[in-house]
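Re: beginner question about structure tokens

> Can someone show what the tokenized structure looks like for a real chain? I only ever see the sequence side.

Sure, here's an example I had lying around. Input first:
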Amino acid sequence: MARLPVLDPDKMTVAQKQVHDTIIAGPRGRVQGPLAVWLHRPELAEKAQQLGQYCRFESSLPPRLSELAILTTARIWDAAFEWQAHVPHALAGGVDVAIIDALAADAVPEFAREDEKLVYEFTRALNLTRMISDDLYARAIDILGRDATVDLVGVLGYYGLISMTIKAFDVDPMPTAS
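And the corresponding structure tokens:
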């Protein structure tokens, strides 16, 4: 059970309501999960949702690679809400179902594309060892380019924050259709 209640829009402060309405009007269309937690601190919610909007919708990474990074991060953190929220986006973005299934089983996926293998290895290295070797960095620059490598680190940082929020505040997984 979540540690913080979801705020009722009718009982929000002016600042909370402004951020809430901005999120609703944006590409997400709703406030849930970590965004709902952050609304308890509207200044944080405002800045975090802006970063998230960039990472999800405006980064130089194609959705196939950003969603792979997001799912890999969700799996590392065992963040069920994040995983459930992004599997449909990953499928729509072109991540192969076999890769998603391997990640779900905490197995190393078989990659047909070098850029996907690189994103997976980079994501795991940064999250688990907290460093990127010179060789892995050089491969990232060679395969992804400078801009996409910078954006990948931004995506990983943002989804690390998402994962920490999910775990610290015990954010419930998304409800499933019955």
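Each token stands for a local structural state, so reading them left to right follows the chain. The mean pLDDT is 94.
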